[in-house]
Amino acid sequence: MYVELKNINKNFGSFQASKDVSFGIEKGRLVALLGPSGSGKTTILRMIAGLETPTSGDILIDGVRVNDISPAERGIGFVFQNYALFRYMTVFDNIAFGLKLKKMPAAQIRERVMELLKLTGLEGMEKRFPNQLSGGQRQRVAFARALAPNPSLLLLDEPFAAIDAKVRQELRSWLREMIYKVGITSIFVTHDQDEAVEVADEIIVTNQGRVEQIGTPRQIYKEPQTPFVSEFIGQSVIIPDYYKLQGFESGKGKYAGAIIRPEFVEAFKSDNPHFADLLSFSEEGTIKDILFRGNSLELKIDVGGITVSTFRSLERRPVEIGEKMNVIIYRLFAFDKEKSYLLENENLAGKNASGEDMDALIYGDAGYFVG
C-alpha cells in the first residue's frame, strides 16, 4: 500500500473526530473520502497532509511513517476548496509559487509552468489574475500549482464545492483524466455521492469519525454493508414495517427496518398487458405526489400506509396525483444495528424481476413505448 492509516484516533478536546481509522491506498489510485458534514473525512485528509497530528496511530506514505514529518517534507500537493490563489499574482506566478520557494532556476520554473498550463488547458492565460478567471479556470490553476513541485501524493478538499453545477460536471471528467495522465496517487474529500461514484476508483465512506465501508463505486452502491451506507448511498426511503409489503412477510421480527430505493419499485396500471403475469404479486397504491426530475418523474406512492418512491419515464403515459397504481417492490435492504442485508421479494422467485427484465416488461421486446 502506498498510503496507510493504522488505528488513527484524533481528539479535539473532549470531541473525538477520528475513531480507530484504518485503511490502505494503492499507488496510482484515485480515492474518494465520502461522507456527510461532520463525518471526519476532512480531518483524515488534513492528518495525511500533516496539517493535523493524530492523537494516536500511524500514518505511512510509501512505507515511511510521517507522523513527525512536516507538511513541506511529505511530498504532498494540496488543492483547497476555495482555491486559495494569491489574488495579486498572475496565473503564471501562482503556479510557480512553490517552485520559487524551492529556489529552482528561472528557466526550469518557466518550463515547468508552461508544461502545466498546457496540461490543464490554461495556455494563453498565464498573464491573467484570478479575478479575470471563471471558477473552473481558478480550480485548474489551483490544480496546476499543486502539481508543480511533482508531489508523490495529491490531496483535494471538496475540489468542486465552490463551482456551479454545470462546470462541476465538466471538471469531474477533466480531473479524472488529468490524474490518470499524470499518474499520481490522489485522495479527494466530498459529500456528493454522485461525484464520488463518477470520479473515484475506490470510495471510503465515513460516518461519525469511523470508516463504514471501503470498496469500488459499484460495490458501495450495490452491496452496502451497514445501515448507514444503505441509507446514505442512493435515494432511499426508510421503512420500519417493511414486512407488511407483499413478498417480505417472513422478515417480520428479524430486522429493525428496511431501506427501499426507487429502482427497487415498479408501478404500473392494471391494464398494462406486459405486467399480466405479475399482477397477482402486486398491491394497490395511490399516488401522493409527482415530482419532475428533468428526464423522469418521481412518484410518491402510498401502499397500505407505507410511502415508497419510484421513477417513471416521461415516455410512458401520464399519471396524476390520487391515481391508483399497482406496485411491485422486488427487493430491499433490511438492516439490524450493525449490518444491512439484501432481501429479494419471495413471491417473485423465478419471475422476471431484475431491473433489466423490468425494462423489458415495460417497453417490450420491440423497444417501443407500451404505457
Description of the structure:
This protein has 371 residues and is of the alpha+beta class. It has 2 domains: 3-231, 3-Layer(aba) Sandwich (Rossmann fold); 235-363, Nucleic acid-binding proteins (OB fold (Dihydrolipoamide Acetyltransferase, E2P)), CATH 2.40.50. Helix content is 25%, strand content 31%. It has 9 helices and 19 strands. It has a 6-stranded mixed β-sheet with strand order 6-7-8-3-9-10, sandwiched between helices. Strands 13-17-14-15-16 form a 5-stranded antiparallel β-sheet, with no helix packed on it.
Helix content: 25-40%
The oligomeric status of these chains comes to single chain
| Neighbour order of strands in the largest sheet | 6-7-8-3-9-10
Number of helices: 9
Task: Fill in the CATH topology of the largest domain.
Answer: Rossmann fold
Radius of gyration: 25 Å
Strand and helix order = EEEHEEEHHHEHEHEEHHEEEEEEEEEH
Could you give me the name of the CATH homologous superfamily of the largest domain?
A: P-loop containing nucleotide triphosphate hydrolases
SS content category: alpha+beta
- Give a quick account of the main beta sheet: strands, pairing sense, barrel closure: 6 strands, mixed
| Strand percent estimate | 25-35%
- At the first level of CATH, the class of the largest domain is Alpha Beta
Q: Which ranges are low-confidence, i.e. pLDDT below 50, for 5 or more consecutive residues?
A: 361-371
